Amino acid sequence: MTFAIGGLVGCASWIVRPAGIRALRQPWRVWLLGIGGLFG
Predict the structure, then answer these.
(1) Which sequence spans correspond to the domains of the chain?
(2) What gap in Å lies between CA 4 and CA 15, rounded to an integer?
(3) How many helical (H) and strand (E) elements, i.e. helices and strands, does the chain have?
(4) What global pTM score does this model have?
């Protein structure tokens, strides 16, 4: 439930600040490290 609320707030903020989605653009190594940290 917490992630759903945070996700909705994050998606709603893209309506107000469309350039905010650029913060999700990270190199693939950064994504891999994040996934490894969550499930490793």
Answers:
(1) 2-39
(2) 17
(3) 2, 0
(4) 0.48
